[in-house]
Amino acid sequence: MLGGAAGSSGGVRVVVEIGGEGRAKAIQLAIEYDPQPPFDSGHVSKASAATKVAAAALLSKDSAKPANLKATTMLAWEQALTAVRSRRRKRQPDLSAT
């Protein structure tokens, strides 16, 4: 493993030592780490029900913080504006050809 994958695997292994296998699986699912992870729970289709619940709990704790809510809202607005601008560009006739 190289780069980020090696760091992620190492991080998951550290979490096992500190917080246990259940917490490590939940974190692995939350970050969707699934190249060849230490646990086979890096995607919702592979995670157990307990891992899904733990990941949702971890994510909800972080997402309820004001800074994260603001960042999420700004990202959603930026994506919406980009989509609208893209549609407008597609509808505008090409006047350079005349």
How would you describe this structure to a colleague?
The protein has 98 residues and is mostly helical. Helix content is 69%, strand content 0%. It has helices at 3-19, 21-30, 49-63, 66-91. Helix 1 (3-19) packs antiparallel against helix 2 (21-30) and helix 2 (21-30) crosses helix 3.
- Strand segment tally: 0
- Overall average pLDDT: 76
Number of helical elements: 4
Distance between the termini: 55 Å
Shape: elongated
| Helix-strand topology string | HHHH
Question: Which range does the strand content fall in?
Answer: under 5%
Helix content: 55-70%
Poorly predicted runs: none
Structural domain count:
1
**Secondary-structure content class:** mainly alpha
Radius of gyration, in Å, reads 20 Å
Can you summarize the main beta sheet?
A: none
Summarize this structure briefly:
The protein is mainly α. It has helices spanning 3-19, 21-30, 49-63, 66-91.
Task: Name some characteristics of this structure.
98 residues; single chain; mainly alpha; 4 helices; elongated
Question: Topology of this protein?
Answer:
Elements: H1 3-19, H2 21-30, H3 49-63, H4 66-91
